[in-house]
């Protein structure tokens, strides 16, 4: 899967985490066009697991256009942009 950006908002990185905090991952890719939202996150989860990355993840997958719209709204995307860590 070719991705344009992986933005990772980790509560642990901003020191407001609990032992059971999950990892919120936002993935932006043209490859998501025409795919159902749940299919997108399942695909990303398979890539993570096959790469040996294990954890409690909340994966949000957007096309670039969807991401641009979400950036202007309230919610996790704005929080990730403000407090998150871009990992690729």
Could you describe the 3D structure shown?
This protein has 88 residues and is of the alpha+beta class. It has one domain (5-86): GMP Synthetase, Chain A, domain 3. The protein has helices spanning 37-50, 64-72, 76-83, and strands spanning 5-10, 23-28, 57-62, 85-86. It has a four-stranded mixed β-sheet with strand order 3-2-1-4. α1 (37-50) links the parallel β2 (23-28) and β3.
Keywords:
88 residues, alpha+beta, GMP Synthetase, Chain A, domain 3, 3 helices, 4 strands, 35% helix, globular
Compact summary:
By secondary structure, the chain is α+β, with helices and mostly antiparallel strands.
**Oligomeric nature of the chains:** single chain
Q: pLDDT under 50 segments (min length 5)?
A: 10-15
Task: Round the mean pLDDT to the nearest integer and report it.
Answer: 78
- Give me the count of strands: 4
Top CATH class: Alpha Beta
Q: What would you give as the CATH superfamily?
A: BolA-like
CATH architecture: 2-Layer Sandwich
What is the alpha-carbon Rg in Å? 13 Å
Number of helical elements: 3
What portion of residues is helical? 25-40%
Tell the overall outline: globular
Number of domains: 1
What profile does the largest beta sheet have?
A: 4 strands, mixed
From the N-terminal CA to the C-terminal CA, the straight-line distance is 14 Å
Largest sheet, spatial ordering of strands: 3-2-1-4
Could you tell me the CATH topology label. Answer: GMP Synthetase, Chain A, domain 3
